[in-house]
User: Fold this.
Amino acid sequence: MTPQLIQDNHRFLDEAGDTTFYGKGKVPILGQDGVSLCFILGMVKFKEPLQPMRRRIIELQNRVVADPYFRDIPSINKKVKEGGYYFYATDDVPEVRKMFYDFIASTNCSFEAYVGRKLPSLYETKHNGKEAEFYADLLSHLLNNKLNKKGKLVLNIASRGKTTKNNNLQLALEKARNRNKGKAVRTEVLFNVQNHRVEPLLNVADYFCWSIQRIFERGEVRYYNFLKDRISLVVDLYDSTRSHDSGNFYSPKNPLTTTNKV
Assistant:
C-alpha cells in the first residue's frame, strides 16, 4: 500500500445542525422544533485507499435497498426515487445506522470537529449576523493547523447552499491564513463541493458529525463512545467557560460526556 494510493491529501467535510438563529421579525428561535442549539463542522481523514472504500459503501447502500426488511421505509424509498439511496444518520433507521457504524469502525480513519454554540450576541458581533460567516469561521479553525506543509490539500465538502459557495470558502481560507501570520503558509488548498450521492465518503463524515451533535443537543454519548478512538479532536469553540485553559478541547483521553449537553 503506497502513500499515493492512500491519497493522504484528501479530507471529507460535512456538518450537523443548522445555522438558523431567527424566525420572522428576527425573533430568536434557537432550540425550537427543527432548530439546533449548535452547529458542527467536521472533517474525516482516511488512512487507506479511497476507491475501495467508496465501492464498499456503495455495496452497503445496495444491500440496504435490496433488503426486504427495509422495503417499506419511507426515508429509504424517497432517496431511491430522488436519485439513489445514501447513508444519512438523521434519516436512517436504527438497523441501518448500526450497519454503517460497524462499517466506519472497520475503517482506518480519523475525525476532528469544531462545535459552534449558537450565541446570538456573538453571532451579531463576530459574524455580522450572517450565516455564511458563521460557517466560514468554523471552517477557518478546521484549516488553521493544516496550512504549513508543502503540496495540495483537497477539501471534499458537502454542498450546503450559500455557505459552501466559493467566495465563502475563500473567506474561511483567508481567516485561517490570517491566524497563521508569522508562520510559513505553504499549502495549496483546493475546494471540491459535492453531494452525498456523488461522493459516498461524505456519508462517513455525516455519521461522525451526527454522533457529536447527539451529545451537544441531547446528552446522548453512545454513538460517540462507539467511535471515540477515531475522533482525535472536538473543540467546543465558543464555550467561554472552559476556553481559557483549553478545557474546551476534547480527545479520547479527555472525552466528551453528557455534561457537554448545551
The chain has one domain: 3-260.
